[in-house]
Amino acid sequence: MLHVDKASDGFGRATVLVRLDMSKLRVPYKSGDHVAIQPPNTALEPQLKKFLKALGRDADAIFEAKKPPGVDAVSKERYPLLHEVLGHKHTVGNVFLTMAAVGDVVSPQACDQLADFAKDPDRQRLREAAVDVDKHKELVKTKGLQWVNIFDDFPSLKAGKVPMELLLMLIPVIRPRLYSVASSPAQEPGELHLVVGRLVYKTGDGKKRLGVCSNFFSKLDVKDEGLAEVRFQVRPCTSFRLPPDLLSPIIMVATGTGLAPFRGFMQERLALAKANNCSLGPAALIVGCKNKAELLLQEELKQATAGGAVTMLLEAFSREPGQPKCYVQDRVRQDAGKLRPLL
């Protein structure tokens, strides 16, 4: 991790420009590629402390998972989390902070197995969620039904009744979150940039929930810069590239953080034009958001327009005071005459 630039709209939402240090990594990337981020459960740490307490486990305690009785094979496909920790010593906290997807929804199958360790009425609710899709959906809607809150939602499961190995069999591993590359190696050698919007939402019972990966980035402080580490993988996206001919016209359409890959394209166009001492073809960028204040990367958009990386910048604001609602599709229709020659 190299640097994080933050912006907020004052409503608990935030967008961060993440700059990953690639200088010591031999991992090539191109504008238009994706990055798979493996985030820790930083956003869930307060709930995670309560989860471990209810489980009867100390976060610093070292344990070595063993194959449960009656289980013939622990395959990566069927029991991915248990497979990852099996036969190795870990601290309890490390497993649940960096490996276990405790922010995921408890599946109906898991509800059925957990019911064996609960008392009524919790047992009945878990059994119903296991066999009735609507009951399960209702619990997800009203409670969230996340693993990290399972002991709060079903208190009779507390006091260490649920075996650790069973949890490791039932809880998934943290799945990677995909983000678009927001930079060009031609302009930012040794770095890879992401534009990440913080996800904030509420469950049916009014509890605030935060996106695991986006909150991890947005919570990083200045003191963490250069020290924080993140596991990631570059995933090439060969079908999403700038045309090889720099004179070819292009049209880009984005809303919100969807502007990220086009930031990389703008950087690449400027860098290649400078390196080859050549002109650039026309490039239209239609960008939409709620209002002018929420438009991301405004200074960079001005620079890209001044430098010729963008020759037509069309803005669409759906909640701009004193103006009618305008979405990107509306702007395309309004400026069809200007855009048609680029097709």
Key features?
343 residues, alpha+beta, Elongation Factor Tu (Ef-tu), domain 3, NADPH-cytochrome p450 Reductase, Chain A, domain 3, FAD
Summary of the model, kept short:
The chain has helices at 45-55, 80-85, 92-98, 108-114, 122-131, 133-143, 150-153, 164-170, 212-218, 260-276, 298-307, 328-334, 336-339; strands spanning 3-8, 14-21, 34-38, 62-64, 89-91, 177-180, 191-197, 200-202, 208-210, 231-235, 250-255, 283-289, 312-317.
Helical coverage, percent range: 25-40%
Number of helices: 13
> What's the average pLDDT?
90
Task: Please tell me how large the radius of gyration is.
Answer: 24 Å
Structural class: alpha+beta
Total strands:
13
Distance between the termini: 40 Å
CATH level-1 class of the largest domain: Mainly Alpha
Order of helices and strands: EEEHEHEHHHHHHEEEEHEEHEHEHH
Largest sheet: 3 strands, antiparallel
Which CATH-level-2 architecture of the largest domain?
Answer: Up-down Bundle
Sequence stretches where pLDDT stays below 50 over 5 or more residues: 8-12
Strand portion, in percent? 15-25%
